[in-house]
Structures are given as C-alpha cells and as structure tokens.
Amino acid sequence: MKNSGKYLRNIWKKLGVNPNFLILSISLVIPYCLPAHPHIFIDNIVTIVFDQNGLAGIQVKWIFDEMYSTAITHDFDENKDGTFSDTEIEKIKQEAFSNLEDYDYFTHIVINGKKFKVKYVKDFSAHLSENRVVYNFFIPCRVSAISSYKEIKISMYDITYYVSVSLADENPVRFKNTSHVDFTYRIFEDTKNAYYYGQVFPHAILLKFREKK
Questions:
Q1: Over residues 23-38, mean pLDDT
Q2: How far is CA 207 from CA 99, 124, 151, 196, in A?
Q3: What is the pLDDT at residue 37?
Q4: Measuring CA to CA, which residue among 150, 15, 122 is closest to residue 58?
Q5: Are the C-beta atoms of 36 and 164 separated by less than 8 Å?
Q6: Looking at the 3D structure of the chain, how many domains does it have?
Q7: Is residue 7 one of the residues assigned to a domain?
Q8: Could you tell me which residues are beta bridge partners of residue 135?
C-alpha cells in the first residue's frame, strides 16, 4: 500500500502513541508486514451490569497486544518503575484514550433496533499485567426492565480495521447484579454489519432481559 506509513501514523496518533517508536519496533521485528491489517490488537472482556431498575451499563476491559503495550509503557511510564501512577494514568487517559470519543470508543450498541450513541465513559483506569497494558472503563447505558423482553446488541470494533477488537478466548461476557432481571444472551457473527470493505464480520453480544417476575 503506497500510503501505509501515513495510515499507520494516523491510527497510532488516534491511540496516543509515539509513531516513531512503533515504526522502529516494527522495522526490527516484521519489516515486510507494514501494509497488513490490523496493526493493534485488543482482547475484550465485557461485563454487563444491572441494577434494581434494569440495565445500568457495560464494564469494559481491554487487554492490548505486547507491541502496543511496549509503546504505551515507553511513552507513559515516566519513572520506568513498571507501573502506572495516578498521574501517569491521567496522562494516558488524556492522550491515549479520551480521543476515542470521536470513534464511540469502538463500541456499537443497538437497543430494540435503535442505535445508541456512546457519549461518554466513566471510571477509566490503566495498569500493566504480564507486560500487557490493560484499560478498564464503564459505559453508562440505562435501559429499564419491564415485563416484556428488551433486546440489546453490543459489539466492539474499529471500522477502519487498524485496531482489531476481539472477544477474549475465555469467559468474554460476564454479568453483575442480576437478581432483579431474567436474561438470556448469545454471541454471534454479525454478518449484516460487515466492515473493512465487507471482509470482516464483527462478533456481537445479543442480550435479552426483562424484570424478574
């Protein structure tokens, strides 16, 4: 791809990483793979949180690949102690996370057939686990439980496919505070919402819930 270097810089800038560092890393490891997609990989764990009224929101855990984690650590672990202080976490939030608001934090939600706009998130944190950077954040999404089922579809993906957001292999969908609701869910390949020139199908979580009788 003729402009692959420019495209890489754009996505790295979107996620707050020094592109010169990543370009150097890739040139040493995979010098012939720059045109390939994607370039950043996220293992995603979703916890669906209920309260006494119904759906309260979605707790998200992103676990980044080792190369991107190395870049984030290089750029933001300023005292090089292998952990992120509160000050460093705030800097990560401002420079390598908050700008994803323009991309709905890669989160696509449909409530009873209508799209839900992710306007903001709460409770952002970042830490290192086994040399991988982990983000945690909460997406408020209040949907009241009634006597009939409501249907929520949740999927996470970057439509440009520079970032691959995939459900984690083990226990990727979890639930919290379910005592007031009856619910079912399934994970499926959403063939009706292909992206990246129709070549990639996102995995979606289809949740149905109602008030417990």
A1: 49
A2: 28, 24, 6, 25
A3: 78
A4: 122
A5: no
A6: 1
A7: no
A8: 62, 126
Q: Quick check: 67 pLDDT over 90? A: yes
Q: Would you say 201 and 139 are in contact if contact means Cβ atoms under 8 Å apart? A: no
Classify residue 50 as left (phi > 0), alpha (psi -120 to 50) or beta: beta
Contact 19, 8 (CB under 8 A): yes
55: amino acid identity, one letter: L
Q: Helical H runs in the chain?
A: 4-14, 19-29, 66-76, 86-96
Domain interval for residue 54: 40-211
CA dihedral of residues 9, 163, 93, 102 (deg, nearest 10): 80
User: Is residue 20 included in any domain, yes or no?
Assistant: no
pTM of the model: 0.84
Look at residue 25 and tell me if it is in a domain: no
- Domain membership of residue 12 (yes or no) is no
Mean pLDDT for the chain overall: 87
58, burial (CB in 10 Å: exposed 0-12, middle 13-18, buried 19+): buried
Joined together, the tokens standing for residue 181 give 């609701």
- Residue 143 φ/ψ, nearest 5 degrees: -135, 115
- Parallel, antiparallel, or unpaired: how do β-strands 150-156 and 203-211 relate? antiparallel
The whole-number pLDDT of residue 25 equals 46
The DSSP annotation for 49-109 comes to: EEETTEEEEEEEEEEE-HHHHHHHHHHH-TT-SSS--HHHHHHHHHHHTGGGGGGGGGEEE
